[in-house]
Amino acid sequence: MQKILTKKSFPKWVANLATYQIYAPVEKDDLWSYEIVTADEITTDYPNTVLSPKKITFPQREFFLEFSQNDDGIPGVTELLPEEKESVIFGVRPCDAKGVSHMDKVFGGDFEDAYYWKRRNQVTLVGLSCNTPPSPNCFCTSVDGSPHSTDGLDVLLTDIGDRFFVQTFTKKGDRIINASKGLFTAPKPKDKTDVEKVHKDAVKAMPRSLKDTKKIPPKLKDLFEANLWDEEAMSCIQCGICTYLCPTCHCFDINDEITSHSPLEGKRVRTWDNCQFPDFTMHSSGHNPRPDKASRLRQRIMHKFQYFVEKYKNFQCIGCGRCISKCPVGIDIIQVLEKVRDHV
Amino acid sequence: MVNLDDIKKEAHRILKEKKVKYIIGYTQGANGFPAVPVFIKNPEDADNLVWNPACIHNLTRFLRDEKKRRAREKHPDNRPVGIIVKGCDSRAINVLLQEKYIAREDVFVLGVSCEDTGVVDEKKLAKKLKGKKALCFDWDENRNLVVTTEDGKSTINADEVLAERCLECPAQSPVVYDILFGDKVKLSPEDRFKSVEKIENLSQKERWAFWKEQFDKCIRCYACRSVCPMCYCDECVVDTISFAVTADTTAEEKAQKIKWIDKSPVTSETYIYHMIRAIHLAGRCIDCGECERVCPLDIPIRFLNKKLEKEAKKLFDYEVGFDPDQLSLVSSFRDEDPEDFIR
Lengths: 344, 343
What we know:
Strand content of chain A: 15-25%
Largest sheet of chain B: 5 strands, mixed
Helix content of chain B: 25-40%
Strand order of the largest sheet of chain A: 3-2-6-7-8-9-1-10
Shape of chain A: flat
Distance between the termini of chain A: 49 Å
Strand order of the largest sheet of chain B: 2-1-3-4-8
Oligomer: heterodimer
């Protein structure tokens, strides 16, 4: 469905979604993050949030089950499935939405992760096309994305002056528009030419690019043992910034958190984990198959540009540039990939 | 004035004469980023070194990696590593020497004086430039930062863009070095602990609220720990497993590994992580401010370390990193040490 919504009507539309929890990027002390907001807090002018909407669909901490043992030693286990309110996330960048779509592949497919889908199914993603790049390190067009990509989105808004060009792609998307039918009008031919122009200009404004990305996955296959990784990882400090901020990194750990020893009570908890940490692959024997930072940096690149491509026919990286912007030592995934691509 | 060519020449010389294994310095980053760490092995690559107000990283952190690398190698190359240090970074070298983590002959120190300026806080500069990208920048002789953007040149007073720690720095020029570049200066900042007053002046309740809000942002990426030259413990209290496990470690020993801090980013766990880190850095932190710089969520970690630095100075007249032979803060005692807190 294609519609036009005036900017003046936008707050009315959000107000009509009162049954939903509304998330949007908001700023506090120069940091942008997705928070629960009211209609008047939603803006269209914001850079990349520090954390992508991954923090809503795949939170850093969630419960699996609750366990206990009574005085007679009888154990009790109760499953704790998430019970989230239905929510609409506004202002999702097309790259971040593609990130959600990639996560869907990982947590769907052969095995459906009930905890993930309980949350995911409650979320409607309303994207905002990037008319200007939200980060100086954006490179979505180099990884099969675009500033107006629709993958993973239920609705895409494009700012065309005093109005939004609205496209819906799913039933969920149609539903939130049908709830406010009177506010939306049919697009006129001029609206369509305007949106085409805005989309075209946005592609031209892409600040960074990586050429011949297709050459990278086959190249990586031969580079497992290359010295390149040692060189590139020399300045890596092994923190978890690149992976925790990445919209598609999804590795996790499961731990039991004991709240009482007698009587025994506690919860089984899933938290984000990180392939850049040495204990991620540490075996209980003391052997660590990824013993140094070179092997861990290699893992991150291989996963994004080789293993994921092999399994899902897509680059896992969505080109948001977060890992570049926030790396404490300036490791630049584009530069690393150029070295991979041009490796002889 | 620091002359970059002098640094390059010396770097070239010590590499050519095989005096050092490699040099840890700064070079221009990808996409025009003005300074990132670099490791130079070949003399001809010494030309890639840069020295500019973006050389903010404390490179002594990489001595941790070097030590681990040496321990792993069967026949390690035991020549020193060349390392470029600013005044603050040089004090980290002294602490590492004091703690016998490194030996003096492990490093060839190329000290570079910050003279009357220091390094630029990226966030402060970004605000000044309002989204414009700095193509190049340098200090002029009047303590101004001369910045070139696509709109041309502009000048900004140093005090408006210097990293907070530079404004409170007690050692602008290196205190330990094999060769020094630039002029030896020792400016005495009016008040080295001015910035902590902002927190000190809060009531206990306000302080709790402040830190709760800050720590609740923490995603436990541990970048603050990873970037710190003093966070070199083989085993850290937040790690889920013991890195000291060897082939000889018994199953019982492994099973008895205590989990001190949960992985969950919740107030209690995150709080205790940051508190333990702060306490373990008391009398060791040289205020390079790296922990705060790298935090992706802008948690003002430096306040904690600065407060402890102030306490050490006030109570025990203890200064960090000026003398590699002094006894450490927590393992030394003087007759005049106050004991009024012992009840």
